[in-house]
C-alpha cells in the first residue's frame, strides 16, 4: 500500500510540475551555466516490491509462514547520467536490495511442540546501462554563452543490465522422509540478464542540487543452483519506487 501511495504522490507532483512549466515557458531558476551540464549523479533510497511468483516462492510460502510481501526490500541505488543530446542521457546505474524475514514451519513443530524456526534472505544487485528521455526542455540558452536550467525535469527511460542475486535460508528444517529435524544453511547464487523501464522527475532547488524520484520495473529470471537446484528459475522481477538527491556537473 505504501508503494501505491508513493506512486500516486509522484503522479500528482509530476502533473503539478508540468502545469507550472506550461504556465511559465522559461521555468528558469536562479543561476545559470555557461553551457549545459555534462552529467548528473543521483543517490536514492526506496522500496523494491518483489514479484515473488514462481515455484521457489510458492514452496516457501506453502511450507513456511512467509508471504509475498516478505520479499520486499529497502533499496539503495546510484545513477550517473551523461548528457548525449538536448533531450537524451546515457545512464549507468547500480542498486542493492536485501529482504530479511523470520518464519516457522507451517505444518510441523518439534518434539516439545515448539516452532521450527528459519530466517530467509533475498539479495538483488542490478548493474545497468540505459537511455533516458526528458519530455520537457531541461533548460534555455540565453545569448551565446549562458544556459539557464529548468526547475522541473520529468523523464522516461529504459535499459538492460546484469542482475546478481543470492537466496539464503538458514535455521531448522523438517526431513519429510523420516520427519527428523536438522539445522542447515541453504543457498543459491547466480547472475541473470535483465531489462527495465522507468519514469520519474527531478525538481531543482538551484542550478546544481535537486530532488529526484521515480518508479522502475525490472524484469529478470535466473537459474537456481546448489541447495535449490531442481526448482524452476527464480523470478527476480519487481517494481521499485525511490527518491533522493541529484547533483549536476
Structure characteristics:
single chain; 249 residues; mainly beta; 2 helices; elongated
Average pLDDT figure: 90
| Helical content class | 10-25%
Order of helices and strands: HEHEEEEEEEEEE
Straight-line distance between termini: 36 Å
Number of strands: 11
Number of helices: 2
Strand order of the largest sheet: 1-2-3-4-7-8-9-11
Describe this structure in words.
By secondary structure, this protein is mainly beta. Helix content is 12%, strand content 60%. The chain contains 2 helices and 11 strands; from the N terminus they run αβαββββββββββ. It has helices at residues 2-23, 55-63; strands at 39-50, 73-85, 88-109, 115-134, 139-142, 146-149, 152-174, 181-204, 209-222, 234-235, 238-248. The strands form 2 sheets. It has an 8-stranded antiparallel beta barrel with strand order 1-2-3-4-7-8-9-11. Strand 3 and strand 4 (115-134) form a beta hairpin. The longest helix is centred in the first third of the chain and has 22 residues, at 2-23. It is elongated and about 80 Å long. The two termini are 36 Å apart. Residues 1-29 have low confidence and may be disordered.
List the helices and strands and how they pair.
Elements: H1 2-23, E1 39-50, H2 55-63, E2 73-85, E3 88-109, E4 115-134, E5 139-142, E6 146-149, E7 152-174, E8 181-204, E9 209-222, E10 234-235, E11 238-248
Amino acid at each position: 500500500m505504501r508503494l501505491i501511495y508513493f506512486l500516486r504522490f509522484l503522479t500528482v507532483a509530476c502533473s503539478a510540475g508540468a502545469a507550472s512549466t506550461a504556465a511559465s515557458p522559461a521555468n528558469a531558476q536562479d543561476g545559470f551555466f555557461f553551457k549545459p551540464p555534462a552529467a548528473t549523479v543521483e543517490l536514492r533510497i526506496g522500496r523494491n516490491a518483489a514479484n515473488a511468483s514462481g515455484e521457489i516462492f510458492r514452496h516457501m510460502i506453502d511450507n513456511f509462514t512467509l508471504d509475498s510481501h516478505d520479499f520486499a526490500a529497502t533499496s539503495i541505488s546510484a545513477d550517473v547520467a551523461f548528457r548525449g543530446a538536448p533531450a537524451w542521457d546515457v545512464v549507468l546505474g547500480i542498486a542493492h536490495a536485501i529482504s530479511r524475514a523470520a518464519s516457522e514451519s507451517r505444518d510441523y513443530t518439534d518434539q516439545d511442540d515448539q516452532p521450527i524456526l528459519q530466517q530467509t534472505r533475498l539479495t538483488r544487485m542490478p548493474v545497468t546501462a540505459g537511455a533516458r528521455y526528458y519530455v520537457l526542455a531541461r533548460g534555455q540558452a540565453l545569448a551565446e554563452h549562458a544556459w539557464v536550467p529548468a526547475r522541473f525535469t520529468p523523464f522516461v527511460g529504459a535499459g538492460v543490465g546484469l542482475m546478481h542475486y543470492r537466496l539464503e535460508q538458514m535455521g531448522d528444517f523438517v526431513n519429510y522422509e523420516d520427519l527428523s529435524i536438522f539445522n542447515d544453511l541453504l543457498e543459491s547464487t547466480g547472475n541473470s540478464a535483465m531489462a527495465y523501464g522507468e519514469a520519474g522527475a527531478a525538481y531543482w532547488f538551484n542550478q546544481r542540487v535537486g530532488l529526484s524520484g521515480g518508479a522502475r520495473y525490472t524484469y529478470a529470471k535466473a537459474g537456481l543452483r546448489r541447495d535449490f537446484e531442481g526448482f524452476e528459475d527464480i523470478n527476480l522481477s519487481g517494481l521499485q519506487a525511490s527518491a533522493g538527491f541529484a547533483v549536476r556537473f
